[in-house]
Amino acid sequence: MTRLDVRDIPPVNRHPTIHDEFDDLEPGETLTIVNDHEPKPLFYEFQAEVESFDADGYEVEQIAPDEFVARFPKQEA
Prior knowledge:
It is built from two helices and four strands; from the N terminus they run βαβαββ. The chain is an alpha+beta fold.
């Protein structure tokens, strides 16, 4: 599982960085991101644009007011 903390990445670069990391995953792997807000817009973006994204397996958990951990699974081949 790949874990990416995007809180220190400038907001304009976050989505492209996340997409690049997701693209590098093998089918069946999961990208876990740590963010300072709930990544619901990113979820909708992935759902609409990324065919290999397993939306049904998506999970998000709020750890602290400024810490959200979201799991973006890639579909099996």
